[in-house]
Amino acid sequence: MHIDQIELARVDAAHSQASGLDVEIRGLVKRFGERQVLHGLDLDIEAGQFVAIVGRSGCGKSTLLRQLAGLDTLSAGSIHFNGKDREALDDSVRMMFQDSRLLPWRTVIQNVALGLAGRSQDVRSRAEEALAQVGLADRANEWPSRLSGGQRQRVALARALIHRPRLLLLDEPLGALDALTRIEMQRLIERIWRQHGFTAVLVTHDVSEAVALADRILLVEEGRITLDETVALPRPREHGEAPFAALESRVLKRLMTVEALNQRNQLRGRVSEILLGPVLSEIRVDTPAGKVSAAISTRSLREHSLEVGAEVLAAFKSTEVMLATVE
Amino acid sequence: MSSVSRVFKKGLAGLLPWLLPIFILLLWELSARFGWLSSRILPEPLAVLRAAWSLALSGELWTHVQVSAARAFIGFAIGGGLGLVLGLLTGTFRSAEIALDTTLQMIRNIPPLALIPLVILWFGIDETAKLFLISFGVFFALYINTFHGIRLVDPALIEMGRSYGLSGWALYREIILPGALASILVGVRYALGFMWVILIVAETISAQAGIGYMTMNAREFLQTDVVLVGILLYALLGKLADSAARLLERRWLKWNTAYAAT
To answer: What's the total number of domains in chain A?
Structure first.
């Protein structure tokens, strides 16, 4: 207990120095050819804050992160770090990718030291230190191919940390890991964030991961921020706790509603026919544009008590048609 | 006791692949001894050994091997070096690809041996002609594999390198070259194989020294045993070059589990 207190005090002291960057995004637009991914997005992030961005794949959240990392050029708008143009502080930004992107032809420690200038002895000792922070000091001289997925991501984290980033961008870095390793990695990332005090932006599709780590959760839909929720839960957070679960389900529910009630890609119409099946049922809808058919599980059909003649909204996704009742 | 028998079994297992060649050699030797096989068609294996031995003793063998090996490797160095450099150039710079690749691809479709008449007109039947043919044949194996090796380097890794502050030569050394190396070494192995084929043809056309000269000379005097010594020398040198390339692969690509020494 005593040791924990000292550790906490030390951590808080380090945190209060707040070496993080503050981020200011104004009118950010990104187009890929004809397709517009970000529609004039505004966002402010305080220095040292941990922000999680959630949303379905293709909503633009990864594009936003890549803009922050300077990997793509902006189509319009501006990004400022600490009031300066983002290029001026490019060296203070590091990115962790979904696939670890370790160089297979370099050993673990050479990967960690990648791009670090200086005397080889200093570089090596700093790399060793960074590896120790992620608990992999004993694997320094192995090839990345010998490591598990979780260990590779820890090496990638050490590689980012060695540059002492003031803004760390995390692009679904835990997406490919198993549940247990993911929770371990979340704790590691949280501990290191508290120790270093950098600003962190995490893109994830896992709402519970966002709730576990972030000070603030942003929901991105169709290239816009549609929810900005502050997470006031004390740290460290436990996945099972009631307030945790409540917040998680609130964000999830919001995610679903926003999806269903999006103004574009939807048609208003009346149910003309319901074909009941044992597992899946088909619902045919008459709309001004023609007939639309949607599949729904028979069980949820019973819960919603949909009848012929009811007014519904048919929302189109790239691979499915969703129905919502009109109140 | 058991360990002895295990060693014995292991030795026996190692011998098995050699049983057939030994059997063929024995059959060959016996057929030659009993006169079923004329020595004008195929000399007995022992005679080939004797011929090799006496050529080695007189020092003639070494001169010829030296001359041939020097030709092969100088040709390889010139053609392979050019192929590597141009492959790196066209692989790295889109503008170099646009300027050079179409021309090179057209020339590539000419079999090097089809150039022999022209080469003799240009360079006569001297060393230059042989070196030119070998360089020409070797060039494309390295050029194409280097070009594709560089093009196939994972763009995600290059993006990562750039975002971690690498650029220019550092990016090349850390990511692009090592990423292309496996493909480049495949090119080296192809080139080495091709190098011997062209060398043999070039040397049989006309030469004052070299393994090809030795065998053509022996043919004139119906010394089939010496002809066979020459053929076996080509096989041996080819195998040596291939083993050297494999060694490089194992050393430079040891990070890759497909090449790791077992």
So the answer is: 2
Q: Which residues pair with B71 in a beta bridge?
A: none
Last residue of a domain, one of A204, A225, A260: A260
> Which ranges in chain A belong to alpha helices (H)?
2-16, 61-69, 108-112, 120-133, 149-161, 179-196, 207-213, 242-260, 298-304
**Any idea what the Cα angle at residue B193 is, between residues B187 and B196, rounded to 5°?**
135
In a domain, A9, yes or no: no
Determine the Cα–Cα distance for residues A296 and A258; give it in Å rounded to an integer: 19
Contact call for residues A149 and A45 (beta carbons, < 8 A)? no
Its domain, for residue A292, covers: 266-325
Coil, helix or strand at residue A305: coil
Cβ-defined contact of A114 to B256 (cutoff 8 Å) = no
Rounded to whole angstroms, the Cα distance separating B43 from A2 reads 91
Cβ of residue B157 closer than 8 Å to a chain A Cβ: yes
pTM: 0.74
Asked if residue A293 is part of any domain, the answer here is yes
What CATH number does residue A79 fall under?
3.40.50.300
My answer on whether A88 and A154 are in the same domain is yes
Residues A320 and A240 grouped into a single domain: no
**pLDDT at A325 exceeding the cut of 70:** no
Contact status of B179 with chain A (Cβ, < 8 Å): yes
Domain boundary residue, one of A244, A260, A276 = A260
β-pair partners for A217: A52, A229
Q: How far is CA A251 from CA A161, A174, A227, in A?
A: 30, 20, 9
B175 touches chain A (CB under 8 A): yes
Say yes or no: A178 and A215 in one domain.
yes
Interval B167-202: pLDDT, tens: 889 999 999 999 999 999 999 999 998 898 898 888
Question: Has residue A10 been placed in a domain?
Answer: no
> How far from B160 is each of A5, A175, B74, B249, CA to CA, in Å?
38, 18, 40, 26
Q: B258: nearest CA in chain A?
A: A145
What gap in Å lies between CA A98 and CA A260, rounded to an integer?
A: 28
Cβ contact B156–A159 (<8 Å): no
Domains of chain B: 1-37 (no CATH), 40-252 (1.10.3720.10)
Which pLDDT score, from 0 to 100, does residue A81 have? 93
Whether the Cβ atoms of residue A4 and residue A185 lie closer than 8 Å to each other: no
Q: How many CA atoms lie within 13 A of A254 on its CB side?
A: 19
Interface predicted TM-score (ipTM) of this complex, two decimals = 0.75
